[in-house]
Amino acid sequence: MSCGEPHDTDCSEVLSEVWLFLDHECDEKRRLLLEQHLDECSPCLEQYGIDEHLKVLLARKCGGEHAPDSLKARLRAEIRKTVVEQGVVIQDRSDTQ
């Protein structure tokens, strides 16, 4: 998407990072660039508003539930297993080079 106006940060780039912006998961410099773009670009600001409302709705409807401890334990075990398997694969690859 592009609004047709020149910006320091491209509209499609801003919209691809809007969730990082909403979740405060980008560094301060990037956050300022995204915020500046949203202040200048009404089409992106409109899309940001839609995403922001969706995030609030999701948090309100889904935010109170917690995963059972048994599920968390199974996930941790699978993650550990995958990490170990990948570690073995990486070691095997380095041995062949």
TrEMBL record:
<feature type="domain" description="Putative zinc-finger">
    <location>
        <begin position="11"/>
        <end position="44"/>
    </location>
</feature>
<dbReference type="InterPro" id="IPR024020">
    <property type="entry name" value="Anit_sigma_mycothiol_RsrA"/>
</dbReference>
<dbReference type="InterPro" id="IPR027383">
    <property type="entry name" value="Znf_put"/>
</dbReference>
<dbReference type="Pfam" id="PF13490">
    <property type="entry name" value="zf-HC2"/>
</dbReference>
<protein>
    <submittedName>
        <fullName>Mycothiol system anti-sigma-R factor</fullName>
    </submittedName>
</protein>
